């Protein structure tokens, strides 16, 4: 299986993440990718290529123009305003306020376009987010040209990003862009299966009312886990998208038995629906030692999950999402890919 990877991910490396009331070195850091690359090579998956330049057209189809313009210019405006540090949202529109009037001041705009303040923007964030999307797009191109599957080693990740909000370390929803491009290239029904520990709120939002893209997500229950305000089982889609949003929230301590049962249920529904292409939001933070998550999967369980996904025999694009148990991120990610190939 070919991997698409860009060194430009390094351009996004904030000094700080707001966590537990302290500034800490971000969990989502450049070295995560090095562990995945090393493991790919160690296992002989050394077909690793740089992506082609990003294609803005499908990104513009899916995302809000004001949001894209904000991401492109935020750092410049922030500096022009004399702000000393990295961009961190401090004021977001809350209950009882205007949710749709965009401030002109950059500090206000940051709040408008952000849904979670742990995520900082720096000078290189936009370039890195574009390089991440480019990896996803090239992986899609490889599969559209006839490969069974491809792996986009995306960084920063994407599944929390909506049409007009960043957060949860995500800026551009790479998996959503791939799904849209599968559609544009003629796939009638595209399924996105999100096995990251966190609910893919951005992906859910983007396709909630659509009948051409099914979204299924296995995640920590929103009462207990970020993103807290979305991801309940009764969110099933709306209008013609009704029935095509499948959430599997699970409680703290969930192990592979219950998790795999949810995975099999999702796979069964994707198959019954008749998907003809598949996008996997591949986070490995369901791992037992992940520092910010609470499921109990072992490394071997990721191989098994990959096997189950492979049995669908669909053209598949894997997009890297989360996973922060740094020593194990490479092993767990590559285990999914190897299980998939194995079937
Ligand atoms: C809040 C924790 C923020 C978690 C962001 C989750 C990022 C992730 N202190 N998403 O899949 O891994
Ligand atoms: Zn995650």
Description:
The protein has 343 residues and is α/β, with parallel strands linked by helices. The chain has a single domain, classed as Arginase, Chain A (3-Layer(aba) Sandwich). Helix content is 37%, strand content 13%. The chain has 10 helices and 10 strands. The chain has helices spanning 31-42, 56-62, 65-80, 106-112, 125-144, 174-184, 201-207, 256-273, 299-310, 326-342; strands spanning 2-4, 17-19, 22-24, 48-49, 149-152, 190-194, 213-220, 245-250, 277-282, 316-320. An 8-stranded parallel beta sheet has the order 4-1-5-10-9-6-7-8, sandwiched between helices. A two-stranded antiparallel sheet has the order 2-3. Strand 6 (190-194), helix 7 (201-207) and strand 7 form a beta-alpha-beta unit. Helix 1 (31-42) packs across helix 10. The longest helix is centred in the middle third of the chain and has 20 residues, at 125-144. The radius of gyration is 19 Å and the shape is globular. The structure holds 8-amino-N-hydroxyoctanamide and zinc ion (ZN). Zinc ion (ZN) binds next to loops.
């Amino acid at each position: 299986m070919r991997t698409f990877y860009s060194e430009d991910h390094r351009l996004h490396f904030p000094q700080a993440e707001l966590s537990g009331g302290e500034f800490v070195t971000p969990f989502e850091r450049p070295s995560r990718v090095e562990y995945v690359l090393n493991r790919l090579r160690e296992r002989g998956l050394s077909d690793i290529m740089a992506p082609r330049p990003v294609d803005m057209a499908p990104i513009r189809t899916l995302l809000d123009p004001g949001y894209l313009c904000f991401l492109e210019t935020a750092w410049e405006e922030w500096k022009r305003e004399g702000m000393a540090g990295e961009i961190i949202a401090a004021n977001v529109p809350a209950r009882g306020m205007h949710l749709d009037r965009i401030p002109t001041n950059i500090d206000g705009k940051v709040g408008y376009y952000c849904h979670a303040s742990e995520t900082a923007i720096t000078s290189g964030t936009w370039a890195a987010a574009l390089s991440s999307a480019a990896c996803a797009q090239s992986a899609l191109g490889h599969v559209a040209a006839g490969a069974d599957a491809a792996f986009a080693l995306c960084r920063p990740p994407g599944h929390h990003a909506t049409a007009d909000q960043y957060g949860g370390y995500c800026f551009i929803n790479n998996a959503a862009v791939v799904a849209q491009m599968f559609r544009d290239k003629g796939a009638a029904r595209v399924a996105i299966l999100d096995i990251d520990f966190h609910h893919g709120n951005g992906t859910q939002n983007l396709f909630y009312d659509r009948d051409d893209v099914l979204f299924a997500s296995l995640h920590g229950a929103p009462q207990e886990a970020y993103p807290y305000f979305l991801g309940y089982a009764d969110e099933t889609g709306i209008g013609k998208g009704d029935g095509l949003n499948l959430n599997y929230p699970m409680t703290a301590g969930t192990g592979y038995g219950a998790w795999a049962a949810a995975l099999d249920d999702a796979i069964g529904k994707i198959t019954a629906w008749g998907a003809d292409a598949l996008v996997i939001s591949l986070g490995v933070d369901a791992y037992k030692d992940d520092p910010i998550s609470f499921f109990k999967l072992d490394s071997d369980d990721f191989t098994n999950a990959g096997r189950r996904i492979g049995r669908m025999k669909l053209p598949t694009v894997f997009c890297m999402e989360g996973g922060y148990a740094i020593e194990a991120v490479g092993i767990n990610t590559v285990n999914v890919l190897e299980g998939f190939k194995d079937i």
